[in-house]
Hints:
Elements: E1 2-9, H1 12-23, E2 32-37, E3 52-59, H2 64-78, E4 85-91, E5 94-100, H3 104-108, H4 113-126, E6 135-140, H5 143-165, E7 169-173, H6 176-186, E8 192-197, E9 204-209
Parallel strand pairs: 5-6
Antiparallel strand pairs: 1-3, 2-3, 4-5, 7-9, 8-9
Helix pairs in contact: 2-4, 5-6
Amino acid sequence: MIREAICEGSDVEEALEKAKAALGIGDTDEYDFEVLQREEKKRFGLFGGKPAKVRAFVVIQEKAEDKTERFLRDVLDKMGLTEIAIEKKMEDDTLEFDLSGEEEGFVIGRRGETLDALQYLTSLVANHNNENYVKVSVNVGNYRDKREKTLEILGRKLAFKAIKTGKKTSLEPMNPYERRIIHTAVQKVNGAISWSEGENAARHVVIGPDPKVKNNTRRGGYNNRRGGKRGGYNAGRKTNPAPNPDRVPLNEGGATGLYGRIDK
Length: 264
């Protein structure tokens, strides 16, 4: 951020002192200046003549949270969302923005795509020419918490479906962070696995039965085996394997995901 002042004087020195005074620059402060126009004396003391003109300026190192908030405000205003309020919170190396207003739906977008794009852009701005990396989160109320819970439930539901039917299911394209939520939910269920297919924006999660795990199913019914006995009460019923919290979830997209560092 640059603050500047342009002043005139009878000579360059006087114009510069006026510009420094306008900026509140002291004798020990750092600043730069350029001479826009040197003074010209009047001819014969009557004709022509020009005052000196100087531009003095100082470069202010704006805080990451301030420049990021200003950028976010500008983007929202250009989107026509001038009534959206921004609440900022900075803790350690995490910068959080909570947006609120009557037009929250426009900020979130389809399945959070607009919100994710805003977060990506603000993260780039926050870390531009910044030595210390700042993690940025842009949220609308508790939308992200609700979305995470929804994805967890979906992942578990489709995992048990894969075990029951023996078929795989392809989900809609998601960003790395949301894919990882699905993987985490699925891989806590014995008998189901998940993987990603597709490239770039079309990359999506596929959930299917784990070929390494035998299906815990017994075929029952009358005279199931030749000479055997009739199946018991649970004969013919499929039993879903119990959740296993010790299974290591697939870390989709490295350790960063949606909220992580963006180097490119």
